[in-house]
Design brief:
alpha/beta; Rossmann fold
């Protein structure tokens, strides 16, 4: 779980973040478009990817990642390795070990990290895409390893006070809608990027 208030990375060294409102009728298409642009800029020849979906099914607000991972796993995308589902969530207790396994099996493939986050009231329902890494656990004051070449986050509720209570009382409807938008956008964007990379002359 992230908290957008604590992002302190130097903006000058990263492309601007792209933001998508979950209520936008073209939200999933925009996620796909922005993802393809980020991948083309940073990894123009990559045709295989790792997607790491962080979160737990024990908290409504923090289940965004596992919901997305479950949808992507069911889609069985070629050349896409998915980590973090409702059956096998990735959270604070197993993140470090999972990252070790990903590094062993990933063969240097670009890693897209996904997590829920807390933010300001007017940002709830916003999906952000940008160059990584993510800082999992920042929203609930946990020190966890940074992860990801690209980062996708969904603002599920307001941060700043009683974060654990806020997460437990986040509306599942919002989290589910965001998971559908992000999963659909990812599936479309990664499939298109893989096909484009195969057509790129070496």
């Amino acid at each position: 779980m992230l908290d957008l208030r604590y992002r302190d990375r130097p903006r000058s060294s990263y492309a601007p973040e792209h933001r998508v409102d979950v209520a936008d009728p073209l939200a999933s298409e925009r996620v796909s478009f922005f993802l393809r642009g980020l991948l083309a800029e940073q990894f123009p020849t990559a045709d295989a990817f790792v997607v790491l979906c962080i979160g737990t099914d024990r908290s409504t607000g923090d289940c965004l990642g596992p919901l997305i991972g479950t949808e992507l796993e069911a889609a069985a995308l070629p050349n896409v390795s998915v980590w973090g589902t409702l059956d096998h969530p990735i959270h604070a207790s197993n993140l470090s070990e999972t990252l070790r396994q990903v590094r062993q099996s990933g063969s240097g493939r670009p890693l897209v990290a996904i997590d829920a986050c807390l933010g300001s009231l007017d940002s709830v329902g916003t999906i952000t895409l940008g160059f990584g890494p993510l800082r999992p656990g920042a929203g609930v004051n946990k020190a966890l390893p940074e992860v990801g070449d690209l980062a996708i986050t969904g603002v599920v509720n307001v941060g700043g006070f009683m974060e654990y209570f806020v997460l437990q009382n986040t509306r599942l409807n919002l989290v589910f809608r965001m998971s559908k938008v992000i999963a659909e956008g990812l599936a479309s964007g990664l499939s298109a990027r893989s096909a484009a990379a195969l057509r790129t002359p070496v």
